[in-house]
Amino acid sequence: MNESKQPPTMMPGGNVIQPRMVLWSITIVAVGLSLFQLYSAGIQPLGLFYQRSIHLALIMMLAFLMFPAFGPTRKRGVLGWGLDVVFLAGAVLTGGYLVFNLDEIFSRAGFWSDTDILVACIATVTVLEASRRAVGFGMTVIGLLAIVYAFAGPRGELPWLGEWMPGILEHRGYTIDRVAGQLYLGQEGIFGLPLGVAATYIFIFVLFGAFLECTGAGKFFIDMAYAATGRQRGGPAKAAVLASAGMGSISGSAIANVVTTGAFTIPLMKRLGYKAKQAGGIEAAASTGGQIMPPLMGAGAFLIAEYTNTPYLDIVKVSILPAIMYFATVYLFVHIIALKQGMQGLPKDELPQMRQVMKDGWHFLLPLAVLVWLLAMSMSPMRVGYYAVVTMVAVAVIRYALWFFFVAPRQGQPVTASATKNMLSAGVGKLIEGLELGARNAVAVSMACAVAGIIVGVVGLTGLGLKFSSMMLAFSGGNILLALLMVLLASLILGMGLPVTASYIVLIVLVGPALTQEFGIPLLVAHLVVFWYSQDSNVTPPIALAGFAGAAIAGSKPMETSFQAWKFAKGLYLIPLFMVFNPEIIMGGPVPVVIWNGVIAILALGAFAAALEGYLFTRMSWLPRIAITAAICGVFYPNLLTEIAGVVVMIIAIGANWLASKREASATPVSG
């Protein structure tokens, strides 16, 4: 383990066998898109519609080139090529029509021409098809259902369908002109806030993550995690938790995180004694936590900042403690299992040395330090991302140049014209790889945001958000716990067809008003709760996508692995509840209150892990486990006396377990 290999670079669409011409086209469009985004982020910002329309056009062109119409395993054929050409033209028309006719469209201000409506219809169909290929059929179906719902009503295109609607969902119905105008020509549809965030903040940080990935940051994070925890009990599993936190903070996908870090951590966990299903579940739970780990939070931080009008830096600050609590819970689960099964760590000679790891990879910390420093100076996140990317490239170039001119000659590799040419060629190739990878990685999230814009546009047009809030209030009877359970179930159902980002957008538009206005939850807390619950489809059976990815690497049954991931990720369900009932950990308050809430939350999560596993210092009987469960409910209740009582019960139960372990140790005869 002294030398770990570089984690595989996951290229979206890389499993498709493509003709050379298509591969070149993908590279050209992807590099062009990344350069356009860098230009608009750091050199010359563009107007809202110009930025979003050009971004969407290039993203959709990439989607149609990367993902064939009939799937990755079938050749395009004449029909496939014909469809691709038609939709590529639709992608160009979608962006180009707005760019070249924006002033005239604004001057018409609602009195759209026939051409406007025709292009709007073409754009909507093109967006839905691009999302089908890049995100999945579920996303497209939900977008189509939203449009059909807009048409259903006495004045709409589908008046007969409105007659079948339950009373609370009824609305007047809208014509194709009104719906098309809302979705394409307004600021609440396809080109609304979700795509606006994707076309600015999200892309530039995804690009930053791509450069970190293709220059070896994955190896650095994994080696650092092994050096820190490898010798401890269950070391590889703890390394998986830490490496996933590091990779997840810059990655936009829990599944990509599982595949990247899990390729190294899961085999070592199995070797140490973890069952295959446990190893896959631990990696899935840890990788899902990467989506709630600042600074990127799987693109969620930027969306929350925009929706709540809260500075991005503030979102990052308030998200640090909950993220630490989540990873601490997974870490403790891992430690308890290691104790329970009598595991040891890896031998020292199989682990990387922290000094050598830092010597080889310290330069990866420089761009992250620049990023944090510029954010602390309240610079725009888009400009911060630009400087972070530039710093990453500059550091990589300088480090390689120093090695080439000063270190390599001492190792018998002289500096020659041929070697210099090869070095420059390799450098340009790595730059192009980073630019292409960033654009490819952004396709799915941008298309998800575009279709989410369709859903948000329909919700705004029909008033569905207020109707949904009324339904939620009626079904929950004003009980906040039941309301949160409904949000959790809704997020799970949506997560079966939508990626996390889109699931969050749709949910917050539907349930956000009820949580804030009817139940009095602070706006920022409501958004964080919905965002956290939107992650549950990664680890909750029957559709636990990260769990399935972990099972594939571990060689275990997908459903068994998913149940393990669900168990280890319990913080995903409990921490949002604590935010609701103890909002001081997010909103702030008197310092003693904030510290008290932070301490009791971590104690409760640790006690919960022990009660669930039935082990801490030694085995727990059912009585203390039941007592701890009741005490946790008390800690979550926003009453000081109840909280103190819960803490006392947990301390007594944990203390009794510790004393029992000491008695067992003294009663065990020492061999010798």
TrEMBL record:
<dbReference type="InterPro" id="IPR011853">
    <property type="entry name" value="TRAP_DctM-Dct_fused"/>
</dbReference>
<feature type="transmembrane region" description="Helical">
    <location>
        <begin position="506"/>
        <end position="533"/>
    </location>
</feature>
<feature type="transmembrane region" description="Helical">
    <location>
        <begin position="21"/>
        <end position="41"/>
    </location>
</feature>
<feature type="domain" description="TRAP C4-dicarboxylate transport system permease DctM subunit">
    <location>
        <begin position="123"/>
        <end position="584"/>
    </location>
</feature>
<feature type="transmembrane region" description="Helical">
    <location>
        <begin position="385"/>
        <end position="408"/>
    </location>
</feature>
<keyword id="KW-0997">Cell inner membrane</keyword>
<feature type="transmembrane region" description="Helical">
    <location>
        <begin position="593"/>
        <end position="615"/>
    </location>
</feature>
<feature type="transmembrane region" description="Helical">
    <location>
        <begin position="320"/>
        <end position="339"/>
    </location>
</feature>
<keyword id="KW-1003">Cell membrane</keyword>
<feature type="transmembrane region" description="Helical">
    <location>
        <begin position="539"/>
        <end position="556"/>
    </location>
</feature>
<keyword id="KW-0812">Transmembrane</keyword>
<dbReference type="InterPro" id="IPR010656">
    <property type="entry name" value="DctM"/>
</dbReference>
<feature type="transmembrane region" description="Helical">
    <location>
        <begin position="78"/>
        <end position="99"/>
    </location>
</feature>
<feature type="transmembrane region" description="Helical">
    <location>
        <begin position="135"/>
        <end position="152"/>
    </location>
</feature>
<feature type="transmembrane region" description="Helical">
    <location>
        <begin position="472"/>
        <end position="494"/>
    </location>
</feature>
<keyword id="KW-0472">Membrane</keyword>
<comment type="function">
    <text>Part of the tripartite ATP-independent periplasmic (TRAP) transport system.</text>
</comment>
<feature type="transmembrane region" description="Helical">
    <location>
        <begin position="53"/>
        <end position="71"/>
    </location>
</feature>
<feature type="transmembrane region" description="Helical">
    <location>
        <begin position="568"/>
        <end position="587"/>
    </location>
</feature>
<feature type="transmembrane region" description="Helical">
    <location>
        <begin position="190"/>
        <end position="212"/>
    </location>
</feature>
<keyword id="KW-1133">Transmembrane helix</keyword>
<keyword id="KW-0813">Transport</keyword>
<feature type="transmembrane region" description="Helical">
    <location>
        <begin position="442"/>
        <end position="466"/>
    </location>
</feature>
<dbReference type="Pfam" id="PF06808">
    <property type="entry name" value="DctM"/>
</dbReference>
<feature type="transmembrane region" description="Helical">
    <location>
        <begin position="360"/>
        <end position="379"/>
    </location>
</feature>
<feature type="transmembrane region" description="Helical">
    <location>
        <begin position="111"/>
        <end position="128"/>
    </location>
</feature>
<feature type="transmembrane region" description="Helical">
    <location>
        <begin position="239"/>
        <end position="266"/>
    </location>
</feature>
<protein>
    <submittedName>
        <fullName>TRAP transporter permease</fullName>
    </submittedName>
</protein>
